[in-house]
Amino acid sequence: MNIAEKIRMAEALTELGVDVLEAGFAIASQGDFDSVKAIADSIGQRADSPVLASLARAGEMDVLRAAEALKTAKRKRIHIVIATSDLHMKHKLRMTPDEVVAATIASVELARRHADDVEWSAEDATRSDPDFLCRVIEAAIKAGATTINLPDTVGYALPEDMARMFADVRARAPGA
């Protein structure tokens, strides 16, 4: 989709009354940045604007690029994502659990300096160690995350697995 088509889609979603519109991944390309910015500059100025979000990985450059793209929006959200399963931390991120927690805290704190609304997502949450998942969620909340997202990124879980994970997190992660 080009920018005009994305704005048209954002207008239609706004008229439908969506509460949050994730406009793009600002650091992914200049085109994505321009689209997020154009939506923030247009729909983001409307009284009926949904919260406008831009995806960002848990890193300074990603968060700052999202913040820049969303700068003019009246209601903005930076959506930070980082992998939390052992498999993804080891092979994709090449990070230890402590490094993932530190990156979560730093990125959420940075995002909060640019937006009051910060979503944090645990990529591959359903295959994450439950103790670690609760630990990193607690860290994200303490750092200022206002929304916690626990996706089944790879389509691994059954509905009862999701119910069990959410019940566990809500019982064990302070603030969840």
How would you describe this protein?
It is a single chain. The protein is an alpha/beta fold. The chain is built from seven helices and five strands, in the order αβαβαβααβαβα. It has helices at residues 3-16, 30-41, 60-70, 86-93, 97-112, 130-143, 159-172; strands spanning 20-24, 51-57, 76-83, 117-123, 147-149. The protein has a five-stranded parallel sheet. Helix 3 (60-70) links the parallel strand 2 (51-57) and strand 3 (76-83). Helix 2 packs parallel to helix 3 (60-70), helix 3 runs parallel beside helix 5 (97-112) and helix 5 packs parallel to helix 6. It is globular, with a radius of gyration of 16 Å. The mean pLDDT is 97.
What's the gist of this structure?
It is built from seven helices and five strands; from the N terminus they run H-E-H-E-H-E-H-H-E-H-E-H. It has 176 residues and is an alpha/beta fold.
Q: Which percent bin holds the helix content?
A: 40-55%
Would you identify the regions where 5 or more consecutive residues have pLDDT less than 50?
none
Using the CA coordinates, give the radius of gyration. Answer: 16 Å
Number of DSSP helical runs: 7
Strand order within the widest sheet? 1-2-3-4-5
Number-wise, the strands total 5
**Relative strand content:** 15-25%
Find the structural class using helix and strand composition. Answer: alpha/beta
Question: Mean of the pLDDT scores?
Answer: 97
Give the N-to-C terminal Cα separation: 37 Å
Note the main sheet: 5 strands, parallel
The H/E string reads HEHEHEHHEHEH
**Shape designation:** globular
